[in-house]
């Protein structure tokens, strides 16, 4: 409800000040981020007891977040079941190479990987590409009709909503409310996803050595945030617990930390410390650390 009310307020503010509209769009982005995390819990079946209710609420929210729900749910499930496994990279994660793999590349391929891992690419161009372009097709699941239905159905409803907004308000609501709020929420969401797994002491193993719960505990961070940010992100920063058991509802995650205090010290990462994670790009199998190119 706050998301819809803020949209209405931002639309009204177009007649007062475009700067005011952009300011309200920042608040809209915060609630859009929370909506995505609710969609996330729907995908894990932890928001409602009823699986069908969870899925349909997730599909509705997926239109607002520009994310075909059934496609995302499948790729995210793969992420949970393979994260940290060097033999199963490439689906639902941020591409990460080992030092040995990088050294074996030619100059051109090294340059392409460096461009891909650069913060301007990941957090500048990446969010727009992912949510506005890649999500329009069932990327990675192109061979199955159900995922095409999910993607095209989301696109159709989204196009109808945007067409209605344009019909009644012209381009300004789209340019000053929809685009900035969606891009900001996407950027925040991608940053959260990045620091939840891309930190120095994360864990990657070969398929023979990989263990699901071991990878969940040691390959996911506890991202410590102020209470207000923790609320807007629906406790997704308590990611090591979430990966240990994804059916725990987000509102119960802090209780787990209170009951099992040792988890609160595991891979603890503050906002200040997390900034340095943007310069980590390669997994070193010898030192078992995520390293910078330098």
Account of the protein in words:
The protein has 294 residues and is mainly α. The chain is 60% helix and 5% strand. The chain has 14 helices and five strands. A three-stranded mixed β-sheet has the order 1-4-5. Strands 2-3 form a two-stranded parallel ribbon. Strand 4 and strand 5 (289-291) form a beta hairpin. Helix 3 (51-64) crosses helix 8. The N and C termini lie far apart (48 Å). The model has no long low-confidence stretch (mean pLDDT 95).
List the helices and strands and how they pair.
Elements: H1 2-13, H2 18-44, H3 51-64, H4 69-82, E1 97-98, H5 99-103, H6 107-117, H7 119-133, H8 145-169, H9 172-195, H10 212-218, E2 222-224, H11 227-232, H12 239-244, H13 253-259, E3 268-270, H14 271-274, E4 282-284, E5 289-291
Parallel strand pairs: 1-4, 2-3
Antiparallel strand pairs: 4-5
């Amino acid at each position: 409800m706050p998301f819809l009310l803020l949209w209405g307020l931002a639309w009204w503010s177009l007649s007062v000040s475009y700067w005011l509209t952009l300011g309200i769009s920042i608040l809209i982005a915060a609630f859009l981020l929370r909506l995505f995390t609710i969609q996330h819990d729907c995908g894990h079946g932890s928001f409602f007891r009823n699986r069908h209710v969870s899925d349909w609420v997730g599909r509705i929210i997926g239109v607002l977040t520009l994310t075909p729900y059934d496609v995302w749910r499948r790729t995210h499930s793969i992420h949970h079941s393979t994260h940290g496994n060097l033999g199963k990279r490439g689906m639902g994660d941020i591409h990460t190479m080992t030092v040995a793999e990088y050294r074996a590349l030619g100059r051109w391929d090294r340059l392409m990987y460096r461009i891909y891992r650069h913060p301007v690419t990941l957090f500048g161009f990446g969010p727009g590409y992912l949510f506005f372009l890649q999500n329009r097709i069932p990327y990675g699941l192109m061979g199955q009709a159900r995922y095409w239905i999910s993607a095209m159905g989301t696109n159709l409803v989204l196009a109808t909503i945007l067409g209605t907004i344009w019909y009644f308000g012209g381009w300004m609501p789209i340019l000053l409310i929809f685009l900035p709020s969606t891009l900001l929420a996407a950027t925040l969401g991608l940053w959260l996803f990045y620091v939840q797994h891309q930190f120095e002491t994360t864990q990657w193993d070969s398929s023979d050595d990989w263990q699901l719960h071991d990878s969940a505990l040691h390959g996911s961070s506890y991202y410590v945030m102020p209470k207000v940010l923790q609320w807007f992100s629906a406790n997704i920063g308590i990611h090591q617990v979430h990966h240990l058991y994804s059916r725990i509802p987000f509102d119960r995650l802090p209780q787990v930390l209170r009951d099992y205090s040792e988890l609160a010290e595991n891979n603890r990462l503050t906002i200040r410390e997390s900034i340095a994670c943007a310069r980590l790009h390669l997994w070193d199998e010898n030192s078992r650390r995520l390293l910078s190119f330098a």
